[in-house]
Design a protein that fits this description.
It is built from 31 helices and 33 strands. With about 750 residues, the protein is of the alpha/beta class. It folds into four domains: about 70 residues, no CATH class; about 290 residues, Rossmann fold (3-Layer(aba) Sandwich), CATH 3.40.50.740; about 210 residues, Dimethylsulfoxide Reductase, domain 2 (3-Layer(aba) Sandwich); about 110 residues, Barwin-like endoglucanases, CATH 2.40.40. Bound molecules: iron/sulfur cluster. Iron/sulfur cluster binds next to helix 3. Belongs to the prokaryotic molybdopterin-containing oxidoreductase family.
């Protein structure tokens, strides 16, 4: 394999694509896989990816259909699994050759391309390099630091959405047995707004639809979401909706290739034909305009009902299953069209067209992602889309409902397993009964509050299981400084990333098995389980020999660390858990609702679906009914000379890690420091395509946050908006700029100005 170069920006731009997938997706998937590993290992991973006895894709959380194709994965899934299955290795010799400072100067791309971590490593206080450490000593170092804390709340236990149900259950058990609910997770930065809104209105934090509902829907609104890059197999499901006669409306500030047309690589028509047109209508909305859009749609429904009483709203459903309708209706009638048109950037005619489609549809689903959740008014926006669905009884019936689409394979399951700083009392009581201890009652810290606590010296030990905390979080300079203030940072990881170069006084890298690795324990070969976006729980079995004989599984690492830290203080069978993951699942079945007979049911091919009481019209809200809410009109408006920036992923990127410097569907090549702006906005700002600018965010704390040297690209973005890649632009998102109620960073709504950059390259 050729040596890895740190790539230099060398921007070239081609017109944005008008369709996604097809033969190029297959070629890119295979090309990247073969750049990482051998043809044999590529075949092994791909043929078992998302199969009932195979490896669950560590990418997004889109579910598998009951009848699986032999190649039941997308381009990105193939890249993810073979990025993990790479034959490149990071050894202790690598760390002697590269100081931490030197590694910190490398790009995210370069760090990831070095390969799999193979040995536990430590950076001792004052040292410039990581050095090898034995596992037993590593656990001693962590246990000693944890026990030395003034209070357990000075420790943070972070989880990323790749972590299995079994490891997540053990991590939260360890944290709570230790005495803290400080369990920040990546969900705090993505769908926390969805959970907050759905719990309040429907009494569940999860989506209500299945894949069959998607196929069966008359109308699907895909809002603030780019499935072609972030949940590619969703396009196969939307293709099926279209074939069944349903319609799709895309609502987004950018036109995205996958929502225009999809060429399904699983069939000949997709490979050599024209594919399927997906969106019947595209609403190019301004960032943050979705609340106004749903308020306008709700107003139109109320007015249509006035004109034809009994013909528009589902009065039986509203009477039997909801509360708050009268107050909601009164508030909605005050919505001003003038405000709506400014907030959305849409014409009234466009919104009326959507209304007509809604009137012609008996079964409606709304799907959404970060475009809604990462806004200051993300929670009211999702509450308002629930109002929209409730009005016509589109909740709790086939082909209808809410569909928050999760971006990481087990982010939903981790929450189900108790990774939350404020789990409900029922869960905590069951946990305490199962293990004969009293879990702490006071709430813990989420991700934003965890950063504040480290910054202010209130948290001193950070333990991260998977993920890349420092690049996934906002206000990068503040976050980096916060982590550096810790006495100890611990990263349990498969591959090298930025979070290993931003160290506490002492720092540990604990290398772990990936999804593709075979997991052998004392009782034999193990599998783990995950839960997807549609509450399907299924197994994942690694197929490859582990990247190194020194690796431990996440379950083993957490179990051994817990034993070393807690000693005999709590009677928890950590050794049995490590030896046989079935013992963990037995405990889960007694603690977590919906998991009865877990070990038996998980053996069924494809696993099982967790019950969702909403689909039986059971709403676990205080009133026992679904709740109409009144949401104050709110919009995001940049002052003159400014734009509203949304951060986004490129197509050739997985979460915080670029796999290449391209964004194929958007026509961006060999560069990531680009900012996409509508040509008319560029004219008004006195800029031209390819100008070199600094992006400066404007926030009321007066701190200047600057992302330097970005190339402007004239792009068909919504007027008044800009788009640029994360994590490069996380530096612009103020830590205190969060969604009301959910505390989610507002990464899709940052007010910025573009200043000519001083350096000219
Ligand atoms: S759609 Fe998501 S889960 Fe499925 S293969 Fe692609 S990245 Fe993996």
């Amino acid at each position: 394999m050729s040596p890895i170069e740190d790539p230099r920006d060398d921007l070239s731009v081609t017109p944005p694509k008008k369709w996604a997938a097809g033969a190029p997706a297959v070629a890119h998937a295979i090309g990247y896989s073969l750049s990482q590993t051998s043809p044999v290992r590529t075949a092994l991973t791909l043929l078992s990816l998302n199969q009932t006895k195979g490896i669950d894709c560590p990418g997004c959380a889109w579910p598998e259909p009951s009848h699986r194709h032999r190649n039941e994965y997308c381009e990105n899934g193939a890249k993810h699994i073979n990025d993990e299955a790479t034959t490149r290795r990071v050894t202790d010799d690598f760390f002697s050759r590269h100081s931490i400072d030197e590694l910190d100067g490398k790009s995210d791309y370069w760090l990831n391309q070095q390969g799999r971590l193979t040995e536990p490593m430590i950076k001792r206080p004052g040292r410039a390099h990581y050095e090898r450490i034995r596992w037993t000593e590593a656990f001693d170092v962590i246990a000693e630091e944890l026990r030395a804390l003034n209070t357990p709340d000075e420790a943070l236990f972070y989880t990323s959405g790749r972590v299995s149900n079994e490891a997540a259950f053990l991590l939260q058990l360890f944290a709570r047995a230790f005495g803290t609910n400080n369990l920040p997770d990546c969900s705090n930065m993505c769908h926390e707004s969805s959970g907050s809104a759905l719990n309040e209105t429907l009494g569940t934090g999860k989506g209500t639809v299945s894949l069959d509902d998607i196929y069966d829907a008359d109308l699907i609104l895909v809002v603030g979401q780019n499935p072609g890059t972030n949940h590619p197999r969703m396009l196969s499901a939307l293709e099926q909706t279209k074939r069944n006669g349903g319609h799709v409306i895309a609502v987004n500030p950018l036109p995205e290739a996958g929502l225009i047309r999809f060429k399904n690589p699983q069939n000949a028509r997709g490979m050599i034909g024209r594919g399927t047109a997906i969106a019947d209508q595209f609403l190019q909305i301004r960032p943050g305009g979705d609340l106004a859009l749903f308020q306008a749609l709700n107003l139109l429904l109320l007015e249509a009902e006035d004109a034809a009483p009994g013909a528009v709203l589902d009065h039986d459903f509203i009477r039997a299953h909801t509360t708050g309708f009268a107050a909601f209706a009164e508030a909605t009638r005050k919505v001003s069209w003038e405000d709506v048109l400014v907030a959305t950037g849409l014409s009234r005619d466009e919104i009326e067209q959507v209304h007509q489609r809604v009137l012609g549809s008996k079964k409606v689903i709304v799907c959404w992602a970060m475009g809604l959740t990462q806004q200051k008014h993300g929670v009211p926006t999702i509450r308002e889309l629930v109002n929209f669905l409730l009005l016509r009884g589109n909740i709790g019936k086939p082909g209808a409902g809410v569909c928050p689409v999760r971006g990481h394979s087990n982010v939903q399951g981790d929450r189900t397993m108790g990774i939350w700083e404020r789990m409900p009392k029922d869960f905590m009581d069951a946990l305490g009964r199962e293990f004969d201890f009293t879990p702490p009652e006071h709430h813990g810290l989420d991700s934003v509050d965890a950063i504040r606590a480290m910054r202010d010296g209130h948290a001193k030990v950070f333990v991260g299981v998977a993920g890349n905390f420092v690049r996934a979080t906002p206000d990068s300079l503040v976050t980096e400084d916060a982590l550096r203030r810790c006495r100890l940072t611990v990263q349990i990881s498969t591959k090298l990333n930025r979070s290993h170069t931003v160290c506490g006084e002492t720092a540990l890298i604990l290398p772990t098995l990936g999804r593709s690795d075979r997991d052998m324990q004392a009782s034999g070969e193990q599998f783990v389980t995950v839960e997807d976006s549609m509450s399907e729980v299924h197994a994942s079995r690694g197929r490859l020999d582990p990247a190194s004989a020194s690796l431990l599984s996440e379950v083993a690492i957490i179990s051994r660390l817990a034993r070393r830290t807690l000693g005999q203080s709590v009677a928890i069978p950590w050794e049995k858990f490590e030896a046989d993951y079935g013992v963990i699942r037995d405990s889960i079945s007694r603690v977590v609702p919906g998991f009865d007979a877990f070990n038996e049911r998980i053996m069924k091919p494809g696993g099982f679906r967790l019950p969702n009481p909403v689909n039986e019209h059971i709403f676990r809200t205080p009133s026992g009914k679904a709740v109409f809410t009144c949401n104050e009109f709110s919009m995001l408006q940049a002052p003159e000379g400014h734009l509203v920036l949304q951060s986004l992923r490129s197509h050739d990127q997985w979460n915080t890690i670029p796999y290449a410097m391209n964004d194929r569907y958007r026509g961006i090549h060999n560069a990531r420091r680009v900012v996409l702006v509508n040509p008319e906005d560029l004219d008004e700002l006195g800029l031209v395509d390819r100008d070199l600018v600094d992006i400066v965010s404007v926030w009321h704390d007066g701190v200047e946050r600057r992302a330097e040297e970005f190339r402007v690209v004239a792009y068909p973005a919504a007027r008044g908006s800009a788009a640029a890649y994360y994590p490069e632009t996380n530096v612009l998102v103020p830590l205190d700029s969060v969604a009301d109620i959910s505390n989610t960073p507002t990464s899709k709504g940052v007010v910025v100005r573009l200043e000519p950059a001083h350096a000219i390259t």
